[in-house]
Amino acid sequence: MMQLYFDVQHLYYIPQYLPVLKELKEKGHKVSMVFYKEQDECSRAVCCDFIDKNAIVAKWLTSASETFDFYQNSDADWVVFGNTFVGAENLNKKTVLMQHGIGPKQCYYDVSNNKMTVRFVEGEHRLQRLKMLYPEGNFIDSGYAKLDPIINQTLGTINLKNLGLDPTKKTLLYAPTFYPSSLECFSDDFPEHFDEFNIIVKPHFFSLFKKKYKKQRLKLDKWANAKNVYLANEYDFDLTPFLELADIMISDASSAIFEFAALEKPVIWCDFYKLRWSYRGIFSYRLKARLDEDIKYFNELCARAGSYKDLKYLLSSSFNESAEFKEKRKEIVYKLAGITDGHSAKRIVSYLEEHQ
After folding, report:
1. pLDDT at 282 over 60
2. Where does the pLDDT of residue 120 fall: very low under 50, low under 70, confident under 90, or very high at 90 and above?
3. Lower CB density within 10 Å: C or N end of the chain?
4. Domain check: are 184 and 258 in the same one?
């Protein structure tokens, strides 16, 4: 029997952890999740709700400054992180990196600057790039565990009626990231412009709470009043139930595009963003540095909207994808998300057991 700790620096790491955590528990291993009291009051409340509903064995640290000593003195066989952890190579424990997203941001690759015992990655393309960048690293292609519950049809947590939406309409999911985001470029009348759809708006967790994204919240509050809109709140931090419900999705520089495309459903890429002045003009190199070259694959996965005005036409035409486009999308999904057979968590757990 193994003892594993999952480090929850941010709530949005949890959906990637959960399939692996459940597989470990089913196989009789001991699992705990580590949370941080230094989060804002609302985040702590959401964590407590999640812990209660899922019977999680939880450990609470006062702040991130305690993390190294806590794990160093713990009974862990493995410690699982959703992002880089400074000092990981000095821990006397085996460590795992399960990056919390598979998006087109440069940080996907940069986080392996800090060496972990093993990093689970998604697909041959990402595997080879990481091996080239970090020849000393240990990278295992497991596929993307976050999608396992959708592929295996084991979610079943919500339906359209639960959300106050119309089951006779097609459902549009808008899942923008926090930065660079398309959200502030959308009309205040977005729900009215697309009233033929149910609209689920799933903002990034940072958009809901960080002070610098106050203008995004003003926009979201206006949309929330529309009858055809369900605005996901802080307790809806897991995107996967909405990925399962939706017929079509629109997003921007987010890993949600890869995730939805992997389900073989149509996606529209909002390639227009509200940029801070420090990312415009002579500073545009900062945006290029933030986004990785993998964003070029968006053109082969989905339709591209260069502006908000493009969405109307694209939303009607995207349901008529050609067989050639669908086949090409499968190739790109395999390249960037790996095997999508619903067994990624099993592969991860098998590796951890074999290398205990």
Report:
1. no
2. very high
3. N
4. yes
CA distances from 97 to 5, 72, 237 (A): 12, 17, 21
* 145 SS3 class: helix
Instruction: Give the whole-angstrom CA distance, residue 111 versus residue 134.
Output: 11
The parent domain of residue 15 ranges over 3-144+341-354
Answer positive or negative: Cα dihedral of 211, 113, 284, 202.
negative
* Nearest in space to 354 (alpha carbons), one of 103, 7, 74, 27: 27
Q: Which residues contact 34 (CB under 8 A, 6 or more apart)?
A: 5, 6, 7, 8, 58, 59, 60, 61, 67, 70
pLDDT of residue 324: 87
Q: Would you give the end-to-end CA distance of the chain in angstroms?
A: 10
CA dihedral 167, 235, 151, 257 (to 10 degrees): 90
Q: Are residues 302 and 189 in the same domain?
A: yes
Check pLDDT > 90 for residue 174: yes
Per-residue confidence at 152, pLDDT binned at 50, 70, 90? very high
Kindly state whether residues 333 and 199 are assigned to the same domain: yes
- Among 234, 236, 104, 119, smallest CA distance to 177 is for 104
CB atoms within 10 A of CB 135: 7
Statement to judge: residues 42 and 185 lie in one domain: no
Predicted pLDDT at 167: 95
The DSSP string of 104-126 is SBTHHHHGGGS--SEEEE-SHHH
Is residue 286 within 8 Å of residue 315, measured between CB atoms?
no
Report the pLDDT value the prediction gives residue 281, as an integer from 0 to 100. 43
